Amino acid sequence: ILHIPTVTPPSALDEMRLLSLIAKRTMSQPPNDSPNMDEALICEDTVRCLVKMLGSVNDDVKAETLDCLTILSPEPVCQQLIARCGGVLPIVHIVATSTSERVLEKALICTWHLISTDESIRSVVHDADGLRSVLDLLYTDSLQILSNVCVTIGYLTRDEEAKRSMASIGGLEKLVATLRHPNAQIQSKIAAAVWNCAAEEHSRVTLRRLGVIPPLIALLEATDPEVLENVTGALWNMTIDGDSRSEVLVFGGIPPLIQVLKSQNSKVVENATGTLWNC
């Protein structure tokens, strides 16, 4: 681990690939199965070494470094360790500036791992203008990158500060536009972000004015339970306001909401019932 930063990119690349393989095997085993390996991987020296490697000008080395950090990052103890070693800002910088799809995809995955459970890391990403950088990627042609962008936005918009920022940086317009994407996975993740944002009063008003109600109603025809759960959740929050309730009625949202009550998914039924109660 300590040797990697001292060698040329070809050698560093080989060693990073080996380290990733070791990390995958170690992190997939119960902690007591390999205590020495756990201690070697999940320690400040290792993480500081990996963070240093994020500054490599070689995209292949950078991608392998991100791959290794991504393997570690789902663990809460590793999330805090990466943050403590200064790893969050370099990853956000890569998201904002990388021209390599491979590097960008891995940086996004690592980002949403880090912010999935830790509010303090979400704040660091937000304060580093990470939300704006991720929103700019909604126009990518890569479905895989777009999928990870949507997951990242969903996690970031769990925080009140990010919800407020969405309106001021044009994020809500981008959400409404992306809600019409033909891919069910993208629809679901964007609807989840709308659900988050619609919990905030000013955002609800802005989303309604941007025309979010008709595409949400259209998505009630979806067959994917995950899409329906997030769409009905978004409508439940949106219909807290009277003007949104009126639009649900005007755009014919009641019949499909009643139809959705037949779903076998309890969350879908709960969200649809809450929406109908509001209306």
Walk me through this protein's architecture.
The structure is a single chain. This protein has 279 residues and is mostly helical. The protein is 73% helix and 0% strand. Helix 7 packs parallel to helix 10. The longest helix is centred in the first third of the chain and has 19 residues, at 9-27. The model is unreliable at 32-38 (pLDDT under 50).
Which series of helices and strands comes N to C? Answer: HHHHHHHHHHHHHHHHHHH
- Gross morphology is elongated
Q: Write down the overall mean pLDDT.
A: 89
Structural class: mainly alpha
Distance between the termini: 59 Å
How can the largest sheet be summarized?
Answer: none
Low-confidence stretches: 32-38
* Subunit arrangement of the protein: single chain
Number of strands: 0
Question: What radius of gyration results from the CA coordinates?
Answer: 21 Å
Number of helices: 19
Helix content: over 70%
Strand content: under 5%
Outline of the structure:
This protein is mainly α and 279 residues long. It is 73% helix and 0% strand.
SSE inventory with pairings:
Blueprint: H1 9-27, H2 35-41, H3 44-53, H4 59-72, H5 76-84, H6 88-97, H7 101-115, H8 119-127, H9 130-136, H10 143-156, H11 160-168, H12 171-178, H13 184-197, H14 201-209, H15 213-218, H16 225-238, H17 242-250, H18 254-260, H19 266-278
